[in-house]
């Protein structure tokens, strides 16, 4: 395990005993058995650590440079990880502000989806596909936030299918080359 992971797991361990909003960097470094300077060598602040945990522990399939073979399977894996780290996700989404996880997820989803669709359909997206992509990224984020904050009501598979079906319906005419939102049964 590298130092960044160690610090990430330390925060996840602290959440079991104390609310995320109340955990200090001092408590995180003590749990990780690293110095404050080591923490700051890797992270600007606690919000950057929260984003790191989300990207590396929860959604590793959604990297803007390597795209998933099956969007459905990758999204389903991510939903399962969100549920596994449910307390972290709920508490992190409740923190508001410019560098909040909620803001980060919304931006990341839009950026990822635009890159993914450029990969699928060519380097330049026409305006209709670009706007449709942004719309579906926002809708997917909102549905996911609602699922998490609502206590993970419904199965991960159901939400993954619903999101893929809604994207497919909304983009059907635009996605002539291939169907990236095919639900794997």
Task: Briefly say what this structure is.
The chain is an all-alpha fold and 185 residues long. Helices cover 67% and strands 0% of the residues. The radius of gyration is 18 Å and the shape is elongated.
Features:
mainly alpha; 0% strand; elongated
Q: What percent strand?
A: under 5%
Give the C-alpha Rg.
18 Å
- The geometry reads as elongated
Order of helices and strands: HHHHHHHHH
Question: Can you count the helices?
Answer: 9
What's the story with the biggest beta sheet? Answer: none
- Say what oligomer this is: single chain
Helicity, in percent? 55-70%
The computed structural class is mainly alpha
The residue ranges in which pLDDT falls below 50 over 5 or more consecutive positions are none
In whole angstroms, how far apart are the ends? Answer: 35 Å
- Taking all residues together, what is the mean pLDDT? 90
Count of extended strands:
0
What does this molecule look like?
It is a single chain. With 185 residues, the protein is mainly alpha-helical. The protein contains nine helices and no strands. It is elongated, with a radius of gyration of 18 Å.
Chart the SSEs and their pairings.
Layout: H1 3-15, H2 25-32, H3 36-42, H4 46-58, H5 71-84, H6 86-94, H7 101-121, H8 127-149, H9 156-171
Helix pairs in contact: 1-2, 1-4, 5-6, 5-9, 7-8, 8-9
């Amino acid at each position: 395990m590298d130092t960044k992971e160690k610090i990430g797991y330390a925060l996840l361990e602290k959440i079991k005993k104390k609310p995320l909003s109340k955990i200090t960097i001092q408590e995180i470094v003590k749990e990780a058995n690293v110095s404050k300077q080591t923490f700051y060598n890797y992270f600007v602040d606690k919000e950057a650590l929260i984003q790191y945990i989300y990207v590396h522990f929860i959604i590793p399939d959604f990297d803007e440079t390597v795209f998933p073979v099956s969007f459905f399977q990758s999204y389903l894996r991510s939903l399962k990880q969100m549920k596994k780290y449910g307390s972290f996700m709920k508490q992190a989404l409740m923190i508001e502000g410019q560098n909040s996880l909620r803001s980060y997820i919304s931006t990341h989803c839009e950026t990822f989806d635009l890159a993914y669709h450029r990969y699928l359909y060519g380097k330049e997206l026409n305006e209709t596909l670009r706007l449709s992509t942004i719309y579906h990224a926002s809708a997917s984020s909102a549905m996911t936030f609602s699922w998490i904050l609502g206590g993970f009501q419904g199965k991960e598979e159901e939400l993954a299918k619903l999101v893929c079906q809604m994207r497919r319906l909304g983009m059907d005419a635009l996605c002539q080359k291939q169907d990236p939102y095919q639900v794997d049964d």
